[in-house]
């Protein structure tokens, strides 16, 4: 089994480009904040539709969805909510009421648009694409390792980064997930070449939370008043949930008890 961290999205990418990872189980990471918000939404509902920021106002989505969307950290004006996991938690009851209307005639679905995460997810070709974050690092690592082991596939961890610029928080998330995958490999006595993982694993041995707090993405969120989200998104293994992406939707496949 090979485990790699991808650098494909470290530079500006043509939106029409596709990456064939059919031989891999893929873990996509967007720490601040899409991955964590997805996990929070999957705690409320079993399915999330995703779209590009540019398409959020498409007529086909009108009146059918509760819209969650941000661009560069800011809530999109036409959306019901931004991309804040804490905002989702605070509005949990209202969201659930819209999802589970008593007369079953106006039940809505969830639609999410993000700056970076959607672009990355829709660029990948694979039957096994999972959502990774710091908040579910161990749980997604355990689940994906088992799938890869059963299907004789490799694992690739893809940090979404920030509009073609290096995002250290996503690289830290990749390092934490890689750490837990390697623990599984050691348990099953599976040999893995860890040379390409060493920088990320060494990074998470340091004070990685301070590095996230001082990152460019975090500074942008602080300026927008979302400092609480930074702390929430940096809390390791607080969400026992795993989401899988396929055909424009993310589905809750593993809610761990």
Automatic annotation (TrEMBL):
It catalyses: (2R)-O-phospho-3-sulfolactate + H2O = (2R)-3-sulfolactate + phosphate. It holds the Pfam family 2-ph_phosp. It is an enzyme of class 3 (hydrolase). The keyword DNA repair does not apply. One of its GO terms (biological process) is coenzyme M biosynthetic process. GO terms for molecular function: 2-phosphosulfolactate phosphatase activity; magnesium ion binding; sulfopyruvate decarboxylase activity. Keywords: Hydrolase, Magnesium. Its cofactor is Mg(2+). Its EC number is 3.1.3.71. InterPro entries: ComB-like, ComB-like_sf, ComB_archaeal. Belongs to the ComB family. This is 2-phosphosulfolactate phosphatase. The lineage of its organism: Archaea, Methanobacteriati, Methanobacteriota, Methanomada group, Methanococci.
């Amino acid at each position: 089994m090979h485990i790699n961290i991808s650098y494909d999205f470290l530079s500006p990418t043509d939106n029409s480009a596709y990456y064939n990872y059919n031989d891999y189980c893929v873990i996509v990471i967007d720490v601040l904040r899409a991955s964590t918000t997805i996990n929070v939404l999957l705690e409320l509902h079993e399915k999330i539709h995703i779209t590009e920021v540019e398409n959020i106002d498409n007529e086909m989505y009108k009146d059918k969805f509760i819209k969650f969307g941000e661009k560069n950290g800011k809530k999109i004006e036409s959306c019901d909510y931004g991309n804040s996991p804490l905002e989702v938690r605070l509005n949990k009851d209202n969201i659930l009421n819209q999802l589970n209307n008593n007369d079953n005639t106006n039940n809505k679905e969830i639609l999410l648009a993000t700056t970076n995460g959607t672009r990355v997810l829709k660029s990948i070709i694979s039957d096994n694409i999972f959502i990774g974050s710091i908040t579910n690092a161990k749980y997604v690592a355990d689940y994906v390792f088992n799938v890869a082991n059963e299907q004789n596939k490799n694992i690739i961890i893809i940090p979404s980064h920030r509009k073609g610029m290096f995002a250290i928080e996503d690289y830290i998330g990749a390092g934490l997930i890689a750490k837990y995958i390697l623990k599984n490999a050691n348990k099953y006595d599976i040999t893995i070449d860890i040379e390409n993982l060493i920088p990320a694993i060494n990074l998470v041995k340091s004070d990685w939370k301070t590095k996230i707090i001082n990152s460019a993405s975090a500074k942008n969120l602080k300026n927008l008043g979302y400092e609480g989200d930074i702390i929430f998104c940096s809390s390791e293994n607080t969400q026992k949930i795993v989401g899988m992406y396929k055909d424009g939707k993310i589905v809750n496949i593993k809610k761990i008890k």
